[in-house]
Design goal:
The complex is a heterodimer of chains A (133) and B (145).
Chain A lengths: L11 E2 L12 E3 L2 E5 L3 E7 L8 E6 L2 E6 L10 E5 L5 E7 L4 E11 L2 E8 L14
Parallel strand pairs in A: 2-8
Antiparallel strand pairs in A: 1-2, 3-4, 4-10, 5-6, 6-8, 9-10
Chain B lengths: L10 H14 L20 E6 L2 E7 L8 E6 L2 E8 L8 E5 L4 E8 L10 E5 L2 E6 L14
Antiparallel strand pairs in B: 1-2, 2-8, 3-4, 4-6, 7-8
The chains are: A mainly beta (133), B mainly beta (145).
Amino acid sequence: MAGQELEVQKKKELASQQEKTTPARFYVPLTDIFETGDALKIVMEVPGVPKDGVDVKIENDVLSMEARIETTNYNGLEPVYTEYPVGHFARSFTLPEQVDQHNITALLEDGVLTLTLNKRPETKPRRIAIQSP
Amino acid sequence: MTEEEIVIYSDSFDTLMQLQHALDSFRSGSWLNTSTSGGGAFPPLNVFSKNDDLVIVAEAPGLKKEELEIQVKGRTIQIAGTKSIAYGDRVSLHRRERTIGRFSRSLDLPVEIDADKVRAEYRDGMLAIFLHRAEHDKPRSIKIA
């Protein structure tokens, strides 16, 4: 894996703007989802988003993430060449039953947002001891 | 509705809208000679000008500063590094969209830059390289006697 050449993935525009009231375009962040023994982790790439630009909310078992990029950096800059579009990010996920909706943490580091969705204790894997007859 | 009829009330939205429009109109620009590694290489770049200076902006989330290498030689800039992800042990992957690997791309600028004044910043997963146009390469205005 280490020798592989990194490729650029085209940014995908958010298809449904249901809850977006702003005229600017949103993009879907590239996302990894994986599961550990105690938690489900959602890792999203949101380059250009500062800490206070992230908004995560849960409603009716749906987790919605919105991440707004800092645009003031672009003031006074004229584009002369471009390879990628710029915009805010948004994505929603339906939460599985085993997630404790009151025990979710978020960490933003170098443009990567990691949501840790802890599982409800009763859904964590348990080791069953085999009884001797 | 035509462009003129749209009223935008908020400044911050306005900035992004203008930026998106401006970038759209440059989508197939040929200003930069990227033939050395081809356009479409990682990281994707946008180049902006500010007066005589240039700013190269790249989306490169999840890198470590130490893993980024930037070299300037004449009109050529090289950006190289490695992106890796540590998932940890004993995990099961449900979805995998992020990619990892080595990258290296170089670009030839159409202007001469002052190699001593090149400055780079990596913040919030964005790389910005600030370039100053070489003094002797700047356009001069000629006064008419």
